[in-house]
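The material for today's practical consists of a large collection of protein records. An example says more than a description, so a record of this kind follows:
***
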Amino acid sequence: MSFTINETTVGNLVEVEATGKLSKEAYDAFVPLTEARIEEHGKIRILFIMHDFHGWDAGAMWEDFKFDLKHFKDIERLAIVGETKWEKGMAIFCRPFTTAKIKYFDHTEISQAREWIQE
């Protein structure tokens, strides 16, 4: 598993790249940074980029569920960038867990995803 949080010049934007299967350790890095951005900016935007992504292990799934419950209204936009049909389905699956506007982009549309997330 590879998990990277990229620095951005936009203060309320969290950009994440994930490869393989996410583990609880990824959330140990993601949650504090994201909660600090929420504390500072109120609502945030997340750009989630997946390469050869295989989902979540059980620990990561639990952490994701807890994060979603706690921050239901704190995310205003979520751009999901992926390579497969099931990843596209994640954009639909996520909707009940957040008030965010969610949009899926194919990996060839990364520049469009970056434009949309900052609109």
Summary: The chain has one domain: 2-118. The longest strand covers residues 44-56. Helices lie at 24-41, 58-70, 85-93, 110-118. The beta strands are 2-6, 13-22, 44-56, 75-82, 101-106.
